[in-house]
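Supplementary Note 3. Input sequence used for the single-chain structure prediction.
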Amino acid sequence: MPHRAAIPALRRLRIQGLRHDGEPVVALHDPLGLADAGAEWPVVVPARVFEIARRFDGESAPEEIALALRAWPSPPTTEEVARVAGGFSDKLLLDDPRFRAAAALALERWNAQPARPWRDPLVLAATDADSRFGLRMRVAGLVADDWDMPAPRGVHALFAPGGSLERAGRLYGRVYAAARQIHPERLVLLSSAGAPLDPLLVPLTRTLATPLGAPLSDAEGLDRLRIDAGVLELAHARHLALERHALFLALLLPRTRVLPLLVGALPARLPDAQDAPRGLPEIERALDALRAAVGDPARTLVIASFELAHVDARTEQPLAFNARTGSALRPFDQQAMDRALEVDADAFWRAGMALDDAWRAGQLVAPYLALRLLEERTPAPGSTLVGETLGYVQSQGSDDLSSWVAAAFLERQSDA
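The predicted structure, written as discrete structure tokens, is reproduced below.
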């Protein structure tokens, strides 16, 4: 048999274990939205197919992969491996010429747009003056609930939700009731993508437009970031959290320059260690870029937007989805946030990983980076840098439960 060429590498995807009709399957979420001709739903494959595809490393030929799996009860043939590779190529799941051509065309179309099109259903519904006025009143009303919040002093960063306004609106209100009183000159917005990206930070170079206007773009911070994400910027097309934050920013902080960044998850092999990622090249490169983008910390507010937990009845997760899920989840969330409020990035990471869940691991990088930046801040004499919880929400849907947190990190007098 002639030697076959190596199969191109499997792209960086978010992997989600599911069950369908009692059988294990795997959902493959493409953060760029290109797989399977840009379908809204992920590609779902049998677990056996994924176990073959996860060996696609860009170096191994079909016969080598088949040989490596010969200990399986029903080992795959070379032909089966090749068929899986062909199917994955057809769906743009491999880093091969077919994917690169589709990505180049999508990026060309993306770059031709003057602004990022909005996609949130609530925002899409604002199609005329009356509905836009209603959206403005809804956003303003969330903040008005906390309008009399005492003005926080010495705030360096905020933790914020990334969910819908229907489910996490109260926390958005608390975050921006605090932010509006700070009046930062610049704002770096880190939003968890929930999927692996390389590089970890993906800036948005299009205007972050909304029906309420667009936040000022921080062109200077973008230049200092020195990241050309290329086709990875396509991940912004589907990401909704930054769009939701932009509603509040455009309405309440119209003079603040904003640098919106997606933050990728670490490759699956790294969170498996259950240890803090300090020193990992991916993390340290991201921090170096952030330090440059932040510039003067005294004039820049950092907001980390992420989902603290997500439990889905359809997925294989450490916590089952039932009436007691929220009670079981709360101690895990509390443990992680206790460490965050102490401004201890590594302890926060380890506490977050105590819930051995791939979704949670994918959300931790954005708040971890924010905490690492906070650790480097020098508070005023006689003060310490601490966190204060602004709110915690668990929201249960018909087949899922999510939790989010709002927190402020500020200087407090040591003798207070």
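The chain has 15 helices and twelve strands. The first strand starts at residue 14 and ends at 20.
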